[in-house]
Design a protein that fits this description.
The complex is a heterodimer of chains A (633) and B (84).
Chain A lengths: L7 H33 L1 H12 E6 L6 E2 L5 E14 L7 H12 L3 H12 L13 E8 L1 H12 L12 H13 L2 E9 L7 H4 L2 E3 L6 E3 L2 H5 L1 H5 L3 E7 L5 E2 L5 E3 L6 E4 L3 H18 L3 E8 L4 E8 L18 H4 L1 E2 L6 H10 L8 E3 L4 E4 L2 E4 L7 E3 H6 L3 H11 L1 H10 L28 H5 L7 E2 H12 L3 E3 L4 E5 L5 E4 L4 E4 L3 H17 L13 E10 L4 E14 L6 E8 L7 H20 L16 E3 L7 E3 L2
Helix pairs in contact in A: 3-4, 10-19, 12-14, 12-15, 12-18
Chain B lengths: L1 H63 L20
Classes of the chains: A alpha+beta (633), B mainly alpha (84).
Chain lengths: 633, 84
């Protein structure tokens, strides 16, 4: 009996043993768990932890400014915010949150409710800017607006009674305030002059290259690399709350902002040109009008415009045809303005002199069984000089024959035609002139008068600039300087001579005859009251590739001033004016309007007595539109 | 016993030192983040100021040339070969 009774010592031992076994089992379980986590699943879990802990942030660079030659900003980047919401906080509270968020963002609460409901229900497609689980609510608000929204959000109670709020509700309130609306930095291109220089500057769109903005058209596209700069990168770790731990940074590369590009464009002159083209557009109703102003001594482009323009901040709002910079992208048969090239070639080669008589066949000449006319004029014998002043087709066809096929072709190429001028603009077209091997028997008589060829307005303007510059052809300049974002010089571009195309004396003679064109010939409407000008008119019928189209004309005028030592070359083209007309009646007045104001702008001194000049009698000013000159009845 | 207590104290001190060090790093990290946020904000302000200035200049230029036939003021830029 006594032996069967358990002693108190045995019971204590059993309890200790059980406790020890339990402790051992517990420790073994913990050990097993640790082995499982740290040994068996080590790689998987380490990867997960790294994934959460490791964070990278791209420090966005600022897109560089584009300025005119005087430092006036033409395109600059402004900071904006895109406002997002975390869809998780909206669950079961769409009505309440829409009521709060709607007024803050200036949106209709009911429509917002519907919109969020659709997204929560997955009935609408996410936009390109939406990220998983979040929804873009408003794009491009100013930082100031965002600050006031944030302020209002921080005071918002979201329908909760904030008196003695339990800790769970306090956490909920914090979540609402933090994630109902949050902003992501964005950039927007700001153009202070709206559609001014639209075709030259181009436009930007959403970046697909890691940058927020990417150039899509014009200079913005061509110089995208240097305007974009380089984004910074920060690779680091974050704590459980998502705060970055700066001391854990493994990569810290600062962003380099985009360069500042200084153009040769002179904004005041650009505005003058655009206004003149706008008036030409309203007066002549052409399909488009374009103009380029060049400083012949340096090749700098002071103004370049095409009308109608478009708004680069909303390029989709205008037809894509208005995006074209027609000065460089279009090539046309230009007609008589090309006679200046033929004349310069003939004079330079000593084939003719200015007073040499040419028989102009009384207005109709049949050469190789093909007829050539001088419109309604029946010129007999004209001097070479008069051939240009009166713009005789027959006279110049004969001069072309005297120069010869190879001579004319070589000279045309020397003047820079048939090759892009090398401007930093996309989609520049080169002229189209067939090689002599492809010419027909009469081609030389047509090329000499600006037909059977297609050239861009830029090529033509540069060829005239060569004549203005004593025969030296320069490379056109649109970018004057590029600066680093800190203001230090990156590159400065100097005028570059391509080649001498004619002798200085030849150029001087051609300018002298072109002056007569303006003072006595077809370009009278380009004459300025106190300043001399030289130029040539051109009117060419347009073709559809098979035949010439009646009534569809390409009217142009290329001129320079002052005539004896030109400071500016101005090329104007009016494409398909509705009221028909000629280069001398449609484009020459536009030249005059621009030149008159350019004279005042640059303080170009008067070099002729206005009293001695005949007034261009066909011109009268319309009372309804005092800015536009128009032909008399 | 005394040695064990000393070792324990040293270990505790090291642990506290490590905690303190980490707190300091964390505080510095927050300071760095705040400074960077400040820099970004000042850059934003600078950009906004540039935009504001550009807007004023544009307004001035627009008014200057709104009357089409009034002779414009002389530009700051002058051709180098200008003759007076």
């Amino acid at each position: 009996m006594t032996a069967l009774r358990a002693s108190p010592g045995n019971g204590r031992f059993a309890r200790v043993a059980i406790l020890a076994w339990l402790t051992f089992a517990g420790l073994a379980a913990v050990e097993w768990r640790l082995i499982k986590l740290q040994v068996l699943r080590h790689e998987e879990l380490e990867e997960k932890a790294e994934e959460y802990r490791f964070t990278t942030r791209a420090d966005q660079s600022w897109r560089g400014q584009i300025q005119d030659r005087n430092g006036i900003p033409l395109a600059l980047t402004m900071p904006v915010k895109d406002v997002y919401t975390d869809l998780a906080v909206w669950t079961n509270r769409v009505g309440v949150l829409a009521h709060v968020v709607g007024p803050l963002l200036g949106m209709d609460s009911r429509r917002l409710e519907q919109y969020v409901n659709q997204r929560v229900g997955g009935r609408t497609q996410a936009t390109a800017k939406d990220k998983p689980g979040v929804l873009l609510l408003k794009q491009g608000i100013s930082p100031g607006e965002w600050l006031s929204i944030q302020g209002a959000l921080n005071g918002e109670t979201f329908g909760l009674n904030t008196n003695r709020l339990p800790s769970r509700k306090r956490r909920l309130l914090r979540t609402f305030r933090r994630w109902t609306l949050f902003a992501v930095d964005d950039q927007r291109r700001y153009l202070p002059y709206d559609s001014s220089l639209a075709q030259v500057l181009g436009f930007v769109g959403t970046g697909t290259n890691g940058h927020l903005l990417q150039g899509k058209w014009g200079l913005e596209a061509y110089l995208d690399d240097i305007l974009s700069g380089r984004n910074g990168l920060c690779a680091s770790s974050q704590d459980a709350a998502g705060n970055e731990l700066a001391f854990c940074r493994s990569t810290d590369l600062a962003a380099a902002d985009g360069a500042r590009v200084v153009l040769t464009i002179d904004l005041p002159l650009q505005r003058i040109v655009e206004q003149a083209l706008a008036r030409a557009l309203s007066c002549w109703k052409p399909s488009n009008a374009s103009c380029v102003v060049i400083r012949p001594a340096t090749g700098e482009i002071l103004a370049m415009a095409t009308a109608p323009a478009f708004c680069p901040q909303q390029p989709g709002g205008s037809p894509a045809a208005t995006w074209r910079n027609r000065v460089i992208s279009d090539r046309n048969e230009v007609g008589s303005v090309f006679k200046v090239i033929t004349l310069a070639t003939a004079l330079d080669r000593g084939v003719v002199n200015l007073d040499q008589p040419i028989f102009c066949e009384n207005g109709r000449w049949v050469y190789k069984r093909t007829s050539l006319r001088d419109d309604d004029h029946h010129y007999g014998i004209l001097s070479v000089r008069e051939c240009l002043v009166k713009s005789s087709n027959i006279g110049f066809a004969k001069i072309g024959l005297m120069v010869g096929t190879n001579g004319l072709y070589d000279s045309i190429i020397k003047f820079g035609f048939n090759q892009p001028t090398g401007l930093p603009l996309p989609y520049e077209t080169a002229g189209f002139i067939r090689p002599p091997a492809d010419w027909s028997a009469i081609s030389i008589t047509r090329l000499a008068i600006g037909h059977e060829l297609a050239v861009s307005q830029m090529e033509l303007a540069m060829a005239y600039a060569a004549i203005a510059n004593d025969g030296r052809l320069l490379r056109p300049m649109l970018v004057r300087q590029v600066d680093h974002s800190d203001g230090t010089l990156w590159a400065r571009y100097e005028p570059r001579m391509v080649r001498a195309v004619v002798q200085p004396e030849t150029a001087r003679q051609v300018r002298q005859v072109m002056r007569e064109v303006v003072e006595q010939g077809t370009g009278k409407l380009a004459a300025l009251p106190g300043n001399s000008a030289a130029g040539k008119t051109g009117t060419a019928q347009k073709s559809d590739g098979h035949r010439y189209l009646p009534g569809r004309l390409y009217c142009s005028f290329v001129g320079m001033l002052p005539a004896d030592r030109p400071e500016l070359v101005i090329a104007v083209a009016v494409d398909e004016p509705a009221n028909a007309g000629y280069g001398g009646t449609v484009a020459a007045p536009v030249f005059r309007e621009i030149a008159e104001q350019a004279v005042a702008l640059y303080n170009i001194p008067q070099d002729k007595n206005p009293g001695l000049l005949p007034a261009p009698f066909p011109i009268r000013r319309r009372n309804s539109d005092p800015g536009m000159v128009a032909l008399g009845q | 016993m005394g040695v064990a207590a000393a070792i324990f104290l040293i270990v505790v001190l090291f642990v506290f030192r490590e905690i303190q060090h980490n707190r300091e790093l964390y505080r510095m990290s927050r300071l760095v983040s705040a400074a960077e946020a400040q820099r970004r904000q000042s850059q934003e302000l600078l950009r906004l100021e540039l935009v504001r200035e550009a807007r004023i200049v544009a307004e001035f230029q627009t008014q200057r040339y709104s009357n089409s036939f009034s002779p414009p003021l002389l530009a700051d830029f002058a051709l180098s070969v200008q003759r007076r």
